[in-house]
Design brief:
By secondary structure, the protein is α+β, with helices and mostly antiparallel strands. The chain contains five helices and three strands.
């Protein structure tokens, strides 16, 4: 188990450092700014949607500052959500929220659906850090809601 925990820590540290999707999109459909008032972590996230059939998250870009958990979670969320339909993204977000509220007791088969984002399962044991991990998902949900509320010519 120690090897798995070490692997999870490495995934989190790599994503906190490399920050996939970091940088704001110039061409976007929705934007959300979120702050975790408990610790001061913050993110501004922009999303671009595509409408070839079922609406899809075409691109996600973000700028943020905060702890390694919030920054890694944003990076992992970017990799997990980009290219998926809005329905799939909502399902993945709900699954991630369930994992964050599992207090470390999350079924492995469900964790597999979250791919590398499952590395954050250990965060669920620390309620004060759960908001850090959920910050990006809240921003993505808000940006998508704004994009859908303000229809583009493509819709």
């Amino acid at each position: 188990m120690a090897e798995l925990e070490q692997l999870y820590q490495q995934v989190i540290m790599d994503h906190a450092r490399l920050r996939h999707g970091s940088g704001l999109l110039a061409d976007f459909d929705g934007e959300s700014f979120q702050v975790n008032p408990t610790c001061g972590d913050e993110v501004r996230l922009r999303v671009k949607l595509a409408y070839d059939g079922e609406p899809t998250v075409a691109a996600i870009g973000w700028e943020g500052q905060g702890c390694s958990i919030s920054q890694a979670s944003l990076s992992l969320m970017h990799d997990l959500a980009a290219g998926h339909t809005l329905r799939e993204v909502e399902d993945l977000g709900e699954l991630f929220r369930q994992m964050m509220h599992s207090r470390g007791d999350f079924p492995e088969e469900k964790a597999d659906e979250l791919e590398d984002a499952s590395a954050l399962v250990g965060v669920s044991k620390f309620p004060a850090r759960v908001k850090c991990a959920l910050l990006g998902w809240m921003a993505l949900r808000g940006a998508i809601a704004q994009a859908l509320a303000e229809p583009t010519e493509e819709q």
